[in-house]
Amino acid sequence: MTGETRTVTAIASNTSLTVDTAFSDNANDTSPDVLYALYTAKTSAGALGLTINDLGNVTVGAPTSVTSGRVSLDNTISASGATTSIAGVYGNYTFNPSAGGTQVGNRFVVNNAPTVTANTAVNQIIRSIDNTTLANLVRGIEVVSNAGSNTAGTNTGIRTTGATFGIQAITTGGAGGVAQPAAIYGESTGTTQGDILRLFSSTITSTPQMAYFYHDTSTFTGTGLLMDFAVGSGTFSGNFVDFQNNNVTKFKVTNAGVVSMGLSGTASTNAVCSSLANATAPTAGTAYEIRDCNAAPAADYAEMYPVAEGLEVGDIVATGEEMVVTYGITDGNVDWNKVKGKITRLIKSEKAYQANVIGIVSDNTGDFSSTGHNIKEEDNPMPVALSGRVPVKIAADSPEILPGDYLTTSGNEPGKATKAGKAGTVIGKALEPWNPGEGDTVMVFVEQGYWNGERLDIMLAGISLPEEGEEGTITLARQILEKFLAEGPAPEDGLDFSELLTDRIAAGLEIITPLLTASAIDADTINARDAIFAGLTFFGNTEGLENGVIFGGPVEFLMPPVFNKDTAGFAIVQAGDQRVRVDFEQAYATTPIVTASISFEATDNIDDVTFFEDKISYVIKDKDDTGFTILLNKTAPYTVRFSWIALGVKDANIFESLGEGLIFDSAPSSPTSTPSDSPLTGGEETSPPEEIQTPPDLPLSGEEEAATEPVSESEPEIIVEPVPEPEEELPTLEEVGTPTSPEENVGATPSEGE
Length: 754
Description:
Layout: E1 5-12, E2 15-23, E3 36-43, E4 48-52, E5 58-60, E6 71-73, E7 239-245, E8 248-254, E9 259-261, E10 272-274, E11 290-292, E12 300-306, E13 316-330, E14 333-348, E15 357-361, E16 367-368, E17 381-393, E18 406-409, E19 417-419, E20 422-430, E21 441-453, H1 456-459, H2 473-487, E22 532-533, E23 550-551, E24 568-573, E25 579-583, E26 593-598, H3 608-614, E27 618-624, E28 627-632, E29 640-647, E30 662-664, E31 718-720
Parallel strand pairs: 5-6, 12-16, 22-23
Antiparallel strand pairs: 1-2, 2-3, 3-4, 4-5, 7-8, 8-9, 10-11, 12-17, 13-14, 13-15, 15-17, 17-21, 18-19, 18-20, 20-21, 24-29, 25-28, 26-29, 27-28, 30-31
């Protein structure tokens, strides 16, 4: 049946199957060595859809195969869809084992066995050809393993194993119209878990490295490793890198570029600096080059301290009351579980010449140390310059500053400095000039300590110091004192006073101060313009008090005091006269209180009986601040002697009689002072005298009348009681001296028989 062809059956309405019988290459051979069979499947239009050649190779979609492959597929499609767009092989398998194990959908095995020359063995080639000019998305292979909902196990898209490379990816870099070409591209669509790149091994021991970036012979100008986060609208608050050993960080770079690293235990004097110019504040978000410092620090030495919120670079800080925990350091790393101790949180300085100042907040730490990095971020650690040069904020009311001037804390603007003038605590020495209104900061050399203050020739501008041997030291001292008094004391709540606590001070010239407080003063001479003795005072020798003296308490004289001639004295009314005038050499500041009494000397030989029989009476009249007059009730029959005392009294009380039978229910509201022009000391003024009324003059003998003094017109509440009958007749006015005011003393001889 050589060449016989039979049609077996139609496969479909539009297809047909033709089967050629086996035939031999020799027509007369009834037992051929090789049989050839040809099977074809045609469509109703006569096109071949399936061909199996005599070698058993299957060709689908083409009349003949162009390869030696056992299966050759050829197809062209234009449809789109999960099933209708498949041009090649479609398999749909179900694994449903009851005993676990491993199931495989497809398996391709290649046994590579060259014997003489090395070859290149490729198990599978998937080739995509795109010769269009469109921005197509072409993938050589796409594996989807996460189509189900199970997330309990390990879900892997592709797993590769190789003796040299597990994955070898190559890009020509030609298709960069939509995305930047890359040999390996990883992407995660997760949110809270899942790495994009992870390198792992549990077997390597001495392999050189786990990751290796290297470049060979070309001229490369790009970046070896680039990390760029939050490119669009996202945010990044993590770390760029975090190198750990057994879960302990050894080197870290934060999102702000802050580098943390472990250091060896060997001490070193080296330091690192940045490319930022000295005294220049860094710009946020700008990276600066780290460089080796010079042999000497470029700026300042600073340590990290916890500070109050809101502090800025240039603020002066002092110790506060709040305490902050610090932690221990092990092998160069902070152990946040090991409390080391506590330190005070620093605050802005508040007082002038403040003694508890620590330093100046700085961000230019040219020669830094790791001290203070064991403070948590929530405690707001900041570098505080303890030495070197840094900018410091200046108070607006500071005097002009010149290079070399010492600076201290301001009492008006917290955290700022001002020019120091007197002895006290200083923060440092100015390195540049400053005038009010010119700027906010001054470069200062941090030099904390106690300063003795400016020279007097600087403090007293316009007042020249006396040359050696020149007279006028006292005058200069008074000028200095007047300057202190004019400035007045500073408020205690805004100033740390300059203080010196010691046992002995030896001054070769003088001590000038507005106030001197001492328990005892041993001096050869005390020149006091005004003096107040608050306690018991002893004057050992004759002292001259040229001005007024005020005694604030009782005064005790251990020896008889001696007063001036206007305080006490004698007066004589000669026989045949009736009065004598006493004139003070120096007028009193106010009308004095005068008392006088008849007092005969032992040499006067006055007969007692005769004196009392003469009934001589007297009164003091015409009294004022210049003197007074003693008036007798009649012409003196002989010489009459008087002793008198005049005392100046400030605001003397005046009491007025209201008649017999009247008594006070309560004391008058206020006593009336003696009218006066000025107080006893002459340094103060008194209130003007009240309007007064003068009672009727009381007649004496003859035509003379008694002088009267003003009395208060206040009328206290009184109670009238019955007047008791007198036991004996009261003496008449002529028999006794009649006082006309409470300040006058009337002396008289008693009536006969008394």
